[in-house]
């Protein structure tokens, strides 16, 4: 008597082989997807770092807003101090408390009123490590105003592995 209710050994081996092939295909696809995800995460991280540096530079060289609720004399004094501090930092290419992430490079180029590069400019990241006076004196601001270019082009580049991100800012003198 034959038992007709089960599978033969050949049927089981064929089923296991088909299952193994399907698992191998899915595993290689999953590994590929995870690799693309890892590369995307690296690209996002370096882009975020570059954007953070660019925003810190922009914030340091832009006058701080002054509350409108102040009396006019207090508001004007605070506005003048804010403009002086921004102009001083801008002219010296100084950004206080800026920590450049690994692999980041900042190049600052002075531009004339038409946006053309001024000869002899293009300072790299060490220019940003200068310490700035918290509130510059009137003499410091006057000296800064005399030497500050009309515009500056700030190029922030970050690189990690084979991923690179660049942000370019053209900032007008405060």
From TrEMBL:
Location(s) in or outside the cell: Cell outer membrane
This protein's UniProt keywords: Cell outer membrane, Membrane, Transmembrane, Transmembrane helix
InterPro entries associated with the record: N_methyl_site (IPR012902)
Protein's name in the database: Type II secretion system protein J
Stretches that traverse the bilayer: 12-36
Superkingdom in the source lineage: Bacteria
Pfam entry (one): N_methyl
Main location (coarse class): membrane
